[in-house]
Design a protein that fits this description.
9 helices, 63% helix, disordered N terminus
Amino acid sequence: MGLTNRYPTLSALLIALALVLGGCQSLNTEPENSLYQQLGEREGIANVVEDLLYLIVDDERINQQFKGVDVAQLHHNLTDQLCELSGGPCAYTGREMRELHSDMAVTNTQFNALAENLILAMEQNDISTGAQNRLIKRLLPLYPDIRNL
């Protein structure tokens, strides 16, 4: 006799755990449209990026990393990158992340500060939590190249 037969509550717990770990997508109440659409398409993404840049300027943890950066170019490239990552029709043509961040010595604190600011910018633009999480999930693979690990 298996453990789940002897302990019916264990069986229920395992089912609940499976739903939480693997079934969150099925519990999503957001409409089935693309992440790109949920972010407000290119215009919405550009608005998020603009708000992100203002938050960066005010953030003592990371604003020194952006001194001397061409803000218009950064806005354009980051908008294109988020647009492409979200499944939109844009093409990111900027430099590779590892090359771009090679001389920056980005710390975990700085990386997390930027992520916090991105979330705040999305909240300011009424991006749903589900869409925020989906975008962050698509950005996570860039972490090793930004941190140059």
